[in-house]
Design brief:
Layout: H1 4-14, E1 20-24, E2 37-38, E3 48-49, E4 53-56, E5 66-74, E6 88-92, E7 104-107, E8 111-114, E9 117-120, E10 130-131, E11 142-144, H2 152-160, E12 165-169, E13 173-179, E14 183-184, E15 195-196, H3 199-209, E16 213-220, H4 224-232, E17 239-243, H5 254-258, E18 265-267, E19 272-273, E20 279-286, E21 289-296, H6 300-318, E22 328-332, E23 343-352, E24 358-362, H7 371-376, E25 379-383, E26 395-400
Parallel strand pairs: 5-6, 13-16, 13-17, 14-15, 17-21, 19-23, 22-24
Antiparallel strand pairs: 1-12, 2-11, 3-10, 4-6, 4-7, 5-9, 8-9, 18-20, 20-21, 22-26, 23-24, 23-25, 25-26
Length: 402
């Protein structure tokens, strides 16, 4: 058995970085930027008013109250074409360009208009209520760097930069193939010895939530012909993710058929609970086609825990993101027994107490068949191999699930 961290490193470093593709800025949220992106314009492009009020000259406001003569009007999207001279002012609204000659904004609450005379009761500080050209950014300035997963604010910024299209990493295409005669799809007739297939649904959701495209290949029955036929549909994908059949029993066919009897397999056993029978290598799809293969256990809990530990880092690596897992620290809400030689991942609830401490409390029963426990869990408590027994209140590393 190899350590979890070594298995993760081998998987991620063997997978390709996705090429760049062009998408509309309106469709770029959640995507990973493939190149540094510079502004194509200055924002704001000129000095603008930050408030509704009056544009005038600071020199005319030395003595308060000051009396000025309105000579024009400027709204956002328009401007006053003349020059503001001594003793003059222009009615201005938020976002409108500052007229030539003006260097001050008197907000409307600080002035009274009677006829053609504006009386200023309070003068602004120099530069107050004016947004200078380039306050936000300037043309040519790199504001979004390659390797950034774009947030809604990022795509709004890109639009303001006058960028209609962005270069982003193509979404990794991950083929998901469940295996086993015992499986039936949700809603299908279920035989007397069958169970409902759930881990393919959960893994596809995990892939989509982390920037990939999941391609459901269905359920392969436990025959060489059906497994080869279903797996062949993964041609053109970036990774084949199989669920079940990753061990070496007589009914576990992934190793034998897709892995070339072991010739194409890097490893197939890791020091982890749940998730020991995890396989990685290359799948032979026939006709000289092979793609990376990640074989997860068929147990739904094991598959999803492995998904968080290996599939999510794999997606991050393929997208050019940091793929290392950095655990948070919490304190254990219950005593923990000593651990054996496998790294253990305990499903747990997570709460923040009044003193600010994060408290992770493992469920009393950790049977890997109990999917409901994973749905209820907020995090996984990570126990290193050979960890000593710990009392309640001891520090523990955690991996958040939500």
């Amino acid at each position: 058995m190899i350590p979890v961290i070594e298995a993760r490193r081998r998987i991620v470093t063997a997978l390709p970085l996705m090429p760049a593709e062009t998408v509309a800025v309106s469709a770029a949220a959640g995507r990973v930027l493939a190149e540094d992106t510079a502004a194509r314009r200055t924002q704001p492009p000129f000095d603008v008013s930050a408030m509704d009020g009056w544009a005038c000259r600071q020199a005319d406001l030395g003595s308060i109250p000051a009396r000025l003569k309105p000579v024009g009007h400027a709204a956002a999207g328009g401007r006053h074409d003349g020059t503001v001279g001594p003793g003059q002012c222009v009615r201005i609204f938020t976002g409108a360009p500052l007229p030539d000659g003006a260097d001050a904004i008197v907000i409307q609450e600080d002035a009274d208009l009677a006829g053609d005379v504006l009386t200023v009761r309070e003068a602004p500080k120099p530069g107050q209520w004016i947004r200078k050209a380039g306050l936000d950014f300037t043309e040519g300035q790199v504001l979004l760097s390659a390797g950034r997963r774009l947030s809604p604010a990022d795509v709004a910024l890109a639009a303001a930069m006058n960028i209609p299209w962005l270069q982003v990493r193509r979404k990794p295409r991950i083929a998901v193939l469940a295996t086993g005669d015992e499986l039936a799809r949700p809603g299908e007739p279920i035989g007397p010895n069958q169970i409902v297939s759930s881990n393919n649904i959960g893994l596809a959701a995990l892939i989509e939530a982390n920037g990939g495209t999941a391609i459901d290949l269905g359920i392969a029955r436990d025959t060489e012909a059906d497994l080869r036929a279903k797996a062949a549909a993964a041609a053109g994908c970036d990774l084949l993710l199989t669920l079940g059949g990753a061990s070496v029993g007589e009914h576990d066919l992934i190793h034998k058929i897709l892995g070339g009897g072991g010739a194409g397999i890097d490893f197939w056993n890791i020091a982890m609970r749940p998730g020991k029978p995890l396989m990685f290598g290359r799948a032979d799809l026939g006709n000289g086609v092979s793609i990376p293969l990640l074989g997860l256990p068929g147990n739904p809990v094991s598959a999803l825990v492995c998904g968080h530990n290996f599939v999510v880092p794999a997606l991050n690596g393929m997208l050019g993101l940091d793929w290392e897992i950095r655990f948070e620290m919490a304190v254990s809400g219950a005593a923990l027994s000593e651990n054996d030689k496998r790294e253990d991942y305990l499903r747990a609830t997570l709460v923040r107490e009044d003193d600010g401490r994060l408290v992770a409390t493992a469920f009393g029963r950790q049977d890997s068949s109990m999917l409901r426990r994973l749905s209820d869990a907020d995090c996984l408590i990570v126990r290193p191999p050979h960890a000593q027994a710990q009392p309640a209140g001891a520090p523990v590393p955690i991996l958040r699930l939500r």
